[in-house]
Amino acid sequence: MWSEKYRPASLEEMVGNREGRTKFQLWLKKWKPGSKAALLVGPPGTGKTTTVHLVARELGLQLVELNASDSRTREKLSKKVGEAIASTSLFGGTSLIFLDEVDGLAGRADYGAVDFIKDAVKKSENPVVMAANDPESDEVKKLGSVTSSIVFQRPEMSDVVGRLEKISQKERLSVTKDQIAKVAESANGDLRAAINFLQAGIPARKDEEMTASESLNAFFDAADETAALRALRAYPGQPRDKIRDLFTAVVRSRVHEERKAGALDALSRADVVMGRIMKGKDWRLLRYLDPLLANELWKALGDGGTRFTLDAVPWPLQLRIWNDSRKLKDIAGLAGRRVGISQRSFLVEDMPYLLLLCADSVFREELVKSLGLEENYAIFLAKESGRASRR
């Protein structure tokens, strides 16, 4: 993975957020027992985790790292970091306790984890640093009394382009400046994603810019496999979104059932490939996704009968989702994790049906209990299910 191969070896090699890195270093040098924890907040790929690792190494600190969203209970957190909080290391040195993704705790699912973290910060004999993507999450707000926030922002586009150009030269890639700029733009300031995209070669191979509808309908209307592949490469979104949109179009199409079954079989194989890519973070496999779809899905569909439109989810629900409903996101994150899909996929694909099912009070109560949600979520689901059934 190029994102690992070209991970900065020092703070000076990092792109952007010089002010945030400096503030974190100063906080750490001034820290003493009883001080607040540092909370690094900002979008994914802005260097929060890398900064913690590099600062710990440069200052000779033993790093005790834990993903808070994977250890959601007081018991698990206490077991993993309790000793580091209470004492110095075996050799008498200072440890740096790093709790990543503290915004991954939601509702009653944390079972005392937030309270444990707050108590631990106050009692710790070692500095505690946390990281979060969403500064507005309830969990981050709950931790506000024991943390000092340090904001990390997306780097300037010119900085991302500059890093990609250096990597391109070292890897001897035949790409133009315009292609590199498209890769940087497609990653939306996420440097790690930009490097992964560069390695996969996906945005750099786009032949033209299209909307999602234009791209997929050009795929369905393609005269041959080459044209189908060219249309897929012009899709403006992420690969997972592309598969989801193709699935939506096929399911809603009026093609013969045998053709539809063949198309869904092809999509299932593509989804398996996508799942392996996401699980193993092997972004190089992305280069095979579009050829697979062009070869199997396009041939399975035959001529005509399939169209893609953006109205698969009712507009009022889309609007509510896009307005960042916190409760919908919490539910989608927890439920999506249960079934192995992303929060966004669950919001768009499954949430409309979940809300309809929640009209049944027994189902609603079991769902709230199963996901460990608070009582106000049950009230919220009851109200939303009523809206969904009236649409």
Task: Describe this entry's structure for a reader.
There is one protein chain. With 391 residues, the protein is of the alpha/beta class. It has 4 domains: 17-151, Rossmann fold; 155-205; 207-311; 315-390, no CATH class. It is built from 19 helices and 5 strands. The protein has helices spanning 2-5, 18-30, 48-58, 74-86, 113-123, 138-142, 157-170, 177-187, 191-200, 212-221, 225-233, 239-252, 257-280, 289-301, 315-322, 326-339, 343-357, 361-371, 375-390, and strands at 37-41, 62-67, 95-100, 128-132, 147-151. It has a 5-stranded parallel β-sheet, sandwiched between helices. The two termini are 46 Å apart. Mean pLDDT is 78; it is low at 202-208 and 311-324.
Backbone shape: flat
Q: How many E strands?
A: 5
Structural class: alpha/beta
Q: Which whole number gives the mean pLDDT?
A: 78
Task: List the SSEs and their pairings.
Elements: H1 2-5, H2 18-30, E1 37-41, H3 48-58, E2 62-67, H4 74-86, E3 95-100, H5 113-123, E4 128-132, H6 138-142, E5 147-151, H7 157-170, H8 177-187, H9 191-200, H10 212-221, H11 225-233, H12 239-252, H13 257-280, H14 289-301, H15 315-322, H16 326-339, H17 343-357, H18 361-371, H19 375-390
